[in-house]
Description:
With 217 residues, this protein is of the alpha+beta class.
Amino acid sequence: MLNLFRRFFGKTGEKATVPVGADDAGSDPFVRRTETGLAVDLDRVAPSAREALYEELLKQNQAPLFEGEVEHGYTKASVGGTATCPRCRAPTRQHCAHFVYATDIATRVMLAPAGFFCSQCPTVIVDEGMIAVGVKGGFQFRGVVGIDFAGKREMALFRTWNGRKPVYILDENEQIMGLSTVESSQATGARFSSSQRKKLKNKRKMAKHSRQRNRRR
């Protein structure tokens, strides 16, 4: 696996080698060990090399890339398990996906096997813990907000989150800074104005190129 990283990182012109020993991976800024595996910083991988690296990561994780429809999201912590869909009780299947997540700076995208997608309805259970430990240093994880499809179609923001209507919290520049729900936002005072709702659709399109630059792992 690390030989694979050496090959790809060498293409960036910034880092030609990575540690040979798996135990040393955590000391490398491009490949580091987390509680759930290895996190790869794709900000330092040439765009031309990313697609091949994605394919290899899918193979290594033995989880196919999710390409279906998704509308409803749940955290693993909220449902207590991942084997059964909390909406229709059908079995789920683990997939890799490009998870869009909010940070204190900007939304980013991470390819990870952190989704358990329902086999019958457009629902996913997200292991946010897996995403959180892979977040690049300097960014504060603020929750998964949707699924990206690597430019093949518009990203999917969740219509419901943990069984409730979601509230996307935006900053003054219309960047998504987090996700809450109607009930919890009323309790904490968070707001999502009508003007923000109108701008969000355009923001999704404008963010496409930015997400491609920020995509990692």
